[in-house]
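User: My collaborator sent over this chain with a note saying "see what the structure looks like." That's all I know about it. Can you take a look?
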Amino acid sequence: MSFTVDRRNFLRFTAGGAVGVATSGVTLRGISELNAALSSEEVRVPSGPEQWKPGICWLCPAGCGLRVRMVGERAVKIQGNPLNPMNHGGLCPKGVAGLQALYHPDRITSPLKNVGKRERPRWQEITWEEATTILASQLRQLRDSGEPRGLALIDRAQDSLRGRLLREFLASYGSPNYLTLSSGLDALQAAVFLQQGVTQPVAYDLENTRYVMSFGVNLLEGWGAPVSIMRAFGRWRDASAGRRSKFVQIESRFSPTAAKADQWVALRPGTEAALALGIAHVLISEGLYDATFVRERTFGFEDWTDKSGQTHTGFRSLITSEYRLNQVSEITGVPPEIIVRLAREFGQNRPAIAIGDRQTSTLTGNPYAAMAVHSLNALVGSIDALGGVLIQPEGPTRDGEQDSAARSAGDRIDARPEYLSPGHHVSRLPEAILSGKPYPLRALLLHEVDPVFAEANGNAFREAFQSVPFIASFTTFMNDSASLADLVLPAATGLERWQEATSPATFPYVLHAVSPPAVAARHGSRDPVDVVLGLAAALGGPPAAALPYPTFEEYLHKQAEKIFAAQTGSVFAPAVEQAWDRLLEASGWWAPSYSSADELWEQMKERGGWWEPTYYYGEWNRVCRTPSGRFEFYSQRLAAWSSRRKEFAQAAGLPPGDDRLSLPHQPALPQPPDGYPLLLMPIEVLPLAGGEGTHMPYLQQIAGEHVFAHWDSWLEINPHTARNLGINDRDLVWVESSRGRVQARARLYAGVRPETVHLPMGYGHTAGPEWQCRGVNPLTIMEAGPEPVAGLPQTGNTFVKVYRA
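Assistant: Without extra context I'll predict from the sequence alone. Here is the result:
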């Protein structure tokens, strides 16, 4: 049938609240043209008993709890689980769209073997038995050749029991190469590592804070745990709570987050660090900082002398000499009176939180800028404080041990002595693959990820993957990376497999959510972790001994035994029971609703999970593990790091012995090259947060509501800039950088600075469902060189020219 998508057709599709092909009891032809286009099958009226099953959203790292309405064996509706403390019954648009992913007609229906070439694949359907035999044979051959470390696995950028199982598999196989995609939290975590000495995820007590200052973080557009943050945002405006918290958004663009803030502060792009340090100058000069906390809990605030007698510049001296109001105002474009007002409000309305620097869910920020912003939290005593910045507890399933992969991090294929970087960053993998150093990569497993599309240096991944002898991808839909694989294995969606979720980054409490499959797996898809467990058994030896679980369900059941042994926390419960459990724990009592590990397991399955409702403040040795045992304005880790001191200093634009290399400071700003006057800054919108979701029409329809753009990429450009370039609203334009050019539809938006333009992320796949192969991927034309501290890819120095197509 012929079919054209327009707003009228889509409204016919959504008028009845439909978000998937299973939302009514009539045939697809009777629903709408759009529903017919989304499925080639005719759906009969669901019959059978109606029930609600627990579930967990798998479409972003937050892992919100779900309730799935079942009619017979068919899922017909998704809504939030009110018992889950992560989302308390709320859902973002991605969670609501889950049924479209479940019943999507373009899902991979069987294992695929590439019988062609990497650049021109030809896919042959094979059985699961053939696929697992090929996979086991490749890994057995690699291990028998004495090169098990030649295997790597790339996973999502989130902590989970799935990830821990996969890390354990790699470690037992003999490989340290568990890697994760880049995250918008990478720079912040690097700052916390350098100033607090910990690698555990940072968290924020947003519900109890009085003042939030966001430096470009898209708090309400997919960053962190979206629904949890939106609930906190609601509390900031809840008059019944007896107070009103203020939210200030500091960024160059008038984003949807800025539109919802109490105040938007516009500044020059890339100058977030300077503004944070200017605010610090006012806090210090006017005595608005927490002098007791700074004196007793911090290091490097004042000038200091080391053991050799050398005097070093302290944070106070740096701030008062180089970040005076007029200097900061000139750098940032923010008037001095606004800087003073922000500082006074931040210092006088405690607890207060500063978050930054500019981040999306996937693009990394700059560690120095993140250190500058994080230093504001230390100045007002918001480290490990109610309503402040916290460090996420490890929880009972970790047994207090570091991951085996982390213990051998120095042997990872992407390890680089020139970078001070915790974590498992994947961005340096292409360089390692192409150079063959420190050793060749022989096999690669992709666990539901698409680095060719999602990474800032995706083109480098595409080139590097050509030289990897064997690649296997677990994925529900074909994508840019899977199209380069030798073996593509259809992954079940979250509703079709055992799901779990641990506390996402930014959430301050220990949490373990769990849910059985809500529906039977479609198209013969399988849970990737079950496949890996079968692979461990087939390989025998250490992998089989380390993972003696026939299914992921058995592995999760084992984790419940560890939780029960901890003798703390409680299963998910209504709000009144949660408040009572929290009160009991705060008083030193534990009164569980279960008396054995098996009872705990059954209640977790029924209610959705278990959590520790109390955060224990004052455990300073857990939240700060620096050489000084204090929060370090002057990072001694940076000071002691000398493997590439000269190159590091050169990249930072400073002399090799300059103390600013160990202190927060404003990184050098890039200058536009001749012929490329406009700074290109990719943006993230909530429906496509994390760069995913364009394969679901429901999300495409609401992606660009703030500029009335749908179904395709758009370029946000200032009307004055557009007029000078002879560009009208909705004109098709070229956006060209030194790396290439892409086409998009111009949308004139007064909330954009005249010297910048913006393209949304999430569009522009080159493989997969037709819906997601629309628009352009801005990352394909962006510069993505590494910054000198953690080696994180930087995209803030891409300049373009724009002209009519």
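A starting point for your reply to your collaborator: The two ends are 32 Å apart (CA to CA).
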